[in-house]
Amino acid sequence: MSRRLSSAFIQQRALVLMNSVLGFISLLNNIGDDVSSAVLDFFTSGRLPKDLNETVISLIPKVINPSSAKDYRPIAFCNTVYKCISKMISARLSEVLPDIVDSNQGAFIKHRSWAHNIMIFQDLLKGYTRKNISARCIMKIDLSKAYDMVDWEFVEDLLRVLCFPSWFISWIMTCLKGTNYHPRLNERIQGSFKGKKGLRQGDPMSPLLFVLIMDYLTRLLRQSSKEKGFGFHRLCKNLRLMNLCFADDLVIFCKGNLNSIRLTQDAFERFCNDTGLSANTLKSHIYFGGVRDEIKSKILNIVKIEEGGFPLKYLGVNLRPTKWKAEDCGIILDKLNKNLKYWVSRNLSFAGRAQLIHSVLLAIRNFWMNIFIIPSKITAAIDKSCRDFLWVLSGNRSKLHRAS
After folding, report:
1. CB under 8 Å to 298, separation ≥6 — which residues?
2. Are 342 and 289 in a shared domain?
3. Domain with 310 in it
4. Where is the Reverse transcriptase domain (predicted)?
5. What pTM, to 2 d.p., does this model score?
């Protein structure tokens, strides 16, 4: 790992990253040498000038009519030079993550897909509504303000335990601890304050560090599974699968008995105490299969979250123990209609429309058909949308379909 992290940083790489950040290759001739020198100086000296770590925070509404601070998502706009530095660190970090992070994490790791998480989750849900099945349960946990609550000291300790080189840890912590925030409200900068914890949403390094933090939970859960009285969820024992992660989307599986729940809850509480994170109990739910009512009541008192019902939403997809229904396929039709709404307003040729259908619309359909058995009603609607887009003319009038 140390060899992959310690290879020399070169000016050409800094220039490429600068172009990806600025988006204007014409600027490279004017300021390219100065920016690349500033970036490479950080990796030589280990010092980051204060001005380079100044960060503007914009509050993005999460709902149509926000009424409280919780309805906004803080997005950090980092300095351009800092983003180049962060991207170079992230490129090195992403090279070693596949060897460190468990396969149950599907986000921000090379050659891993979120579809893999959905397929596993869907398979484990099968049979949940049947009677006389073995006791099982699933906890879908929403982490409250996940990025904003991360403890910096824990990040440093975690990197050290994972045997990252001291100089690499120093680079990361210099970027984290030197943050100075400037909130932007009503199109004006309103003062400033120094950061004391959290990962910036907008920093290229933040998602990768958060993946490492969530992998710490996986290690704690694996450790708790070795305790006497713990039982795995159906189909999970051989794989020793206890959770699925996609960034801050967390799902935990275990047997539906009190001992398993207590051990799982203890591991999660330790994770929260160590990292500074916590569960949003209002958005978290537990799902039972084959669990008696009296056991359910005791489990709900332990986990302090409500029982949920099906279908449940995971990574934007409705999942249920039975086959997909037409009303669950809204995400597919929404993706198609979003593209079509944009394309229809453009003056595209027949060949151009045909190419978009084959390369985009049918690719979306095929992707979802690899995961689920899509109802025939939905496939017919997709085919109709493709036909209408292919043959449409101006004035909302359709052309006659050609024989060949």
Report:
1. 258
2. no
3. 90-177+197-319
4. 41-319
5. 0.85
